[in-house]
């Protein structure tokens, strides 16, 4: 197992380098002069322009800029934005909030999706199963901003049982409704994945063998059916964590959450490549680590898997 972890970590290095190179190239090689865009309509003196280009290594060839960027990642020095704020301070402020929101959304989608999907799979073809399939299709069809505004209006404005906006505190109670909104789409997918896997495993040979051995129905469902049905669900949920953190722009905008999504959106609109590249780099690392954790969980869920 230890050697497998080391091998997977080594495999992540070229993936990380390739992904960061593409992100860096797409952000910094776009047409236009970011230094002149920073000045706006005002005319910048040649001395100031040269100093800013030297500060951000824009006067160097592209590969030198990329190497300086990698050096900053290794030393956890993400530089400063064009507005003069340290990018690391923005990371420290925004990522814990979005990470807390994404973890809550993943827990909600996993718990409710697995529970409802398990019951629907065990009752395949019955009323509850049909209701869950229709409900999941409705959730998938409705855009997330509609769900967000509807939850904000009903729970925050009309009934007053939840805060309308979150703000800078972002406590557990404040993030509960946004987490439900953020995890609603993934909940529908988890429900359908669990339902299909349970319905398929119900007729598997090992389930019939376990029933013939006299095991209780509860043990057959929990140990044999549910455990094997969670493999595709774990794959989806594990990779979904990184996507939720990067795709929380709409939810954070609706509920005024100062997280990764809102900060990334503001950095893109203001034209701050250092901030955009730093945030996307951290998201890439999170995606790689979650994929590693998912691979390790396979061994715990499927006894047939053995890592040499």
UniProtKB/TrEMBL annotation:
Keywords: Cell membrane, Membrane, Transmembrane, Transmembrane helix, Transport. Gene3D superfamilies: MetI-like. Residues 95-298 form the ABC transmembrane type-1 domain. InterPro entries: BPD_transp_1_N (IPR045621), MetI-like (IPR000515), MetI-like_sf (IPR035906). It is found in: Cell membrane. One of its GO terms (biological process) is transmembrane transport. Belongs to the binding-protein-dependent transport system permease family. This is ABC transporter permease subunit.
């Amino acid at each position: 197992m230890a050697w497998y972890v080391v091998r997977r970590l080594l495999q992540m290095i070229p993936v990380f380098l390739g992904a960061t190179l593409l992100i860096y190239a797409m952000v910094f090689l776009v047409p236009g002069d970011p230094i002149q865009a920073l000045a706006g309509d005002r005319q910048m003196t040649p001395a100031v322009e040269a100093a800013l280009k030297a500060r951000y290594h824009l006067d160097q060839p592209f590969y030198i800029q990329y190497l300086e960027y990698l050096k900053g990642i290794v030393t956890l020095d993400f530089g400063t934005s064009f507005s003069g704020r340290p990018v690391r301070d923005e990371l420290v402020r925004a990522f814990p909030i979005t990470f807390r929101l994404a973890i809550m959304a993943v827990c909600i989608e996993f718990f409710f999706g697995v529970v409802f999907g398990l019951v629907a799979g065990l009752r395949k073809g019955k009323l509850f199963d049909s209701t869950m399939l229709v409900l999941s299709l409705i959730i998938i069809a409705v855009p997330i901003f509609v769900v967000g505004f509807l939850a904000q209006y009903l729970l925050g404005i009309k009934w007053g049982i939840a805060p309308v906006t979150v703000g800078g505190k972002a406590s557990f109670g404040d993030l509960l409704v946004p987490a439900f909104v953020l995890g609603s789409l993934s909940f529908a997918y988890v429900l359908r994945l669990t339902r299909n896997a349970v319905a398929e495993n119900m007729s598997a040979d090992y389930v019939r063998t376990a029933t013939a051995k006299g095991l209780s129905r509860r043990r057959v469902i929990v140990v044999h059916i549910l455990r094997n049905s969670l493999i595709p669900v774990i794959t989806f949920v594990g990779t979904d964590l990184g996507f939720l953190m990067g795709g929380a722009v709409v939810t954070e905008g609706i509920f005024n959450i100062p997280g990764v999504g809102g900060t990334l959106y503001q950095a893109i609109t203001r034209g701050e490549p250092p901030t955009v590249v730093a945030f996307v780099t951290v998201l890439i690392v999170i995606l790689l680590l979650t994929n590693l954790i998912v691979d390790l969980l396979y061994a715990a869920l499927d006894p047939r898997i053995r890592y040499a």
